[in-house]
Fold this protein.
Amino acid sequence: MGQIAVAKQPVPTDGERFFVEKIEPVLKKECFACHSAKAKEVKGGLRLDTKLGLRNGGDSGPVIVAGNTDKSLLVQAIRHEGDLAMPPDKPKLPTQTIADIVKWVEMGAPDPRQNAAAGIAAERDPRLHWSFQPIRETEQPAVKDKFWPHSPLDTFILSKLEARNWQPAPAASRAEWLRRVCFDLIGLPPSPEEVLQLDRDESPDALERVADRLLASPHYGERWAQHWLDVVRFAETEGYEYDRHVPDAWRFRDYVVDSLNRDKAFDRFLTEQIAGDEIEPESLECLSAAIFHRIGPVRRNAGNPDIALSRNEVLTERTDIIGTAFLGLTVGCARCHNHKLEPITQKDYYRLQAYFAATSEHNILLESAVDQKQWEAKTAAARQEIQRVQALSKQATGAERDRLIAEVEALEDKLPPPLATIPSTRNDFSQRTVIHVLRRGEWESKGEPVGPRPPSILVRDDLPEFAADVAHPRTRLAEWLTTPKHPLTARVITNRLWQAHFGAGIVKTANDFGARGDPPSHPELLDSLAASLIDSGWSLKQLQRQIVLSNTYRQSSYSPHAAQAEQADPESRLLWRVNRRRLSAEELRDAMLAVSGRLNRQAGGRSVMVPVDPQLVEQLYKPAQWQVAERAAEFDRRSVYLIAKRNLRLPFLEVFDAPTLLASCSRRQASTHAPQALELLNGRFSNDLAQSFADRLEQESGGAPEQIVERAFWLTAGRAPTPRERNLSLDFLREGSLPEFALAMFNLHEFLYVP
Amino acid sequence: MSPDAPLASGLLSDSPHSRPTRSRREFVRDAFCGFGGLALSALIGEQSAVAEAKSPHSVANPLAAKSPHFPAKAKSVIFLFMAGGPSHLETFDPKPLLNKLNGQTRPRGFGEAKYQFVQRDAKLLGTRRTFQKYGQSGIPVSDLFPHTAQCIDDIAVLRSCYGDMVVHSAAQYELFSGRTIPGFPSFGSWTLYGLGAETESLPAYVVLPDPKGALEAGQPMYMHGFLPAVYQPTMFRPGGRPVLNLDLPTGVGQEQRRRTLALIRRLNEAALNPADAELNARISAYDLAFKMQTEAPEVLDLSQETPETLDLYGIGDERTSDYGRRCLLARKLVEQGVRFTCVVSGGGPGNMQWDAHSDIEENHVRKAAETDKPVAGLLKDLKRRGLLESTLILWGGEFGRSPEAESGKGRDHHNLGFTMWMAGGGIRGGQVVGATDAIGLRAIESPYHFRDIHTTILHQLGLDQHRLTFPHLGRNERLTFVEGKVIREIV
């Protein structure tokens, strides 16, 4: 501070003189050929001939972090430290030159050059941002090791490793691979028999057959649905104070599970969710897909003064999720102002919103006309009474109103269960909201009206808007999103799949492919996979098959001789080993159920509420909402079938980083803290299952301690115990209780982590 | 680009509070400056070979205490949350003109206001409370709070607070997280994220809800939003064993459990690479869990307090016992280094909160009687133990109440101008800051938004609102959505 020079004729500082004398000539001589306006093609989107270009960096992001040479890509590149070596295909610059540049960055990278033009015009053209470019298929890079790559995918990975003289990690054992691929594809541990079977299988296609079996398992959809439900922040209740249960919203979950199991083409999957009610208004499947627009938080306040405000909030939810889930762009910022960092204008935002102007809630009763009539007749009196009291409550004030509202709720609770419903959507053009650009995002401050149109950055400038009341507006949105030329849709879903298998995406910020997002670690690979996804007819399973059978995926998570890689790339973004990962909350719960022999594999249907601490239920505004399933066997269903209720999440899942259900979750956290240990040690669920696991061990081993220990390790870790583990366990069992031993097995690192 | 470069996104600053996920390298680094927690290994009679090989401090704990951005005045926060919205007009903001205009419509000169229920033609409602000046500062306090009034010289009364929303849930979200929608971290979670914990035996962010029931915004209001789960609040349950999962399961004795823990540790260490920081952290989490389990019940036990202390909080009197117990618990938590405690007054149906739609007299006399003595007791007790200097107290609700009458003798929600107060933690008490207009409709002098309250609290804790950030959906999110101001008059 205090150094803001406003002198009319600026006197150059020492640093600026240093730049002019030592740095600029080097840039001119060595770099401008590729990184200036004179270049035939500006390489990497980086220009060094202007102050702004130097400051903004290129496709890989900023090249200079003032004052921090270690973090400055430019310095790494001229030192040949990173995977960029500059100038390319030439020896390093002279030592003194490198030292000068380092010194200059340490000085804070002073640059006295004036910007060519003031303001935004001089900024890098946002269209050059990598993710807005068409998907480019590049040739496979040449690699020295011809034997390691099993598929083109491996070649892209290996070439980056070879460029640094790193080795891929040794292959994981078959048992480790099996454990990994089972959790990744179906979210459940392999059985000991499956481990042994694969170990004995000497046929050349043994792994292929395992992968195919898992991809065909009905559990595949249950596992992969959770990833998608995270992204679209699926919940069956509306949140806010009432946290109203949307009738039969679980049908959306079943739709996702089923679609993934059938390997529905992703472009179709997307279209059905966005526009199912438009494209096939008679299809229950498509109508269930369109529940998509009903699963976000909805505010329904008592006496909410502003209906227009509520409508605006609903539209906001429906618009933002399109950006996040499909485009991988945070469009929400542009609701209030032109996006400062992304080329999304306010007008773009409201044009996107205009696709939803007529979208309204539509609950479709599934029962026959006769059943409907019967239900209506049976409840006519009660419903009339509810309406009467409701009307009274609207006129009443104060305590009287509270009393009447409570009465309405009590009456509603007494109604017989509602009829089977699809809480879908439809276009109601008579109620269409006229979409305006809203100043500061406030619904009262209406600017110009707009019609539907994709964001400008992604279409040609002169593309007109659709008419505000265009027929099937959401179909048009889906058509645009699924054109094979779309630069984002295929990349974004490809990256999500990659992330789910490797822990981090090729783009680490899976919901953000914009200027602030993380640049891709392997851009060519991402494009190659995205292109192959489209070529395969958008088959997610084919892409995953390719991934799980790759040698990249087969690597061990432990690489014994990789000190240099460990140092330079501790997160293994270049995949010199596979990253171990902790089970997600749902996987952990499901694995405990599976291992203890209690897992109820029933698929689909109404969501389950399990018993929870009564205190939690009392913290609900309407405790009667928590209706515990009648059959105890339901409590042991897979986690994806437990109710997703915004205001009451299971403490067990919460403590292991299950998402809040309020905003899109692009990637699960994996935190480690004491309440997790308390949950696994003292929680009711853990101890209950430990008892069942103990019973199972007793039964399957005939009660002999050696057999118990053997079986316990096979079930929880997928391998035999080591001699030390066997001795420790047998010592324990001599005095300790079997359920406590079973509980200890749930707390093994190997049980909690995918190798 | 190199994977080790700063991800070139500009997302990550150098602040230790800006890291979403920690690289292995960071994990290892933290492992050596985390705090020790070898209680379990000591108890099970064996030192961890791994721990010995490295250092006595072998624990990578994401809750390890962190240094603030600049020297802090406060170490802990207690939020006395008066849910439902207490009236400023009946408590700390006397308006003689309102009494004069009782029964008339609002003079046009005061401008418009949007309410939840009351209509434009509603009549102004005078107050039946009387105000008296207290302490050396001579600040007027109404007869609802005779005990709190005795502490007024420690209190900075903020008469010019305002928020953006006039319905409970949205206003409560804004009060806690700075946003009017759920899903953002509460200021309790941000505080924990910024400073870590100073207790190993207790959860570091505690909410003591009103046993009478839920609030409109529900649990999400207190939550950690997109911050890692380690920063979530712990909701205490009423009764003697408030923390979930601290008790051993039925039928399992201490001795048995000690052996089980020893087995877990030995098995996990048998298969452990000594340099594996992440799995070492997991082992440490079990140490901490064990420590919590053995030490927390003692801390939470109120039976060792003297009768004089119990009386100070009004424990024993039916009206004040509940809130008094929870305030006393808050003091004990602060003593143990708990970073953030929220003591909620109000829950369940509106009239069980400060939500006095139908009868401001009945509601506020009752709610004040339940809380006045406990609140004053807490202030006095903290002060005499030397804890008030480092403990910042915030009192208030999600909004105030309307100058107009609702249903004759009640008041509606009101977000344009209302009172909160702060004390302790370096706050300069004995002063009034800001003012509403002559009928208490609008904050007209030095208006302070919730984000300014948040900024001020962070400031006292030594945290800079701009540096306490977390990347989420493409933005570096912070507690103060729009930049907040430090309330300079009181710090």
About this structure: The two ends of chain A are 50 Å apart (CA to CA). The CA atoms of residues 412 and 751 of chain A lie 46 Å apart.
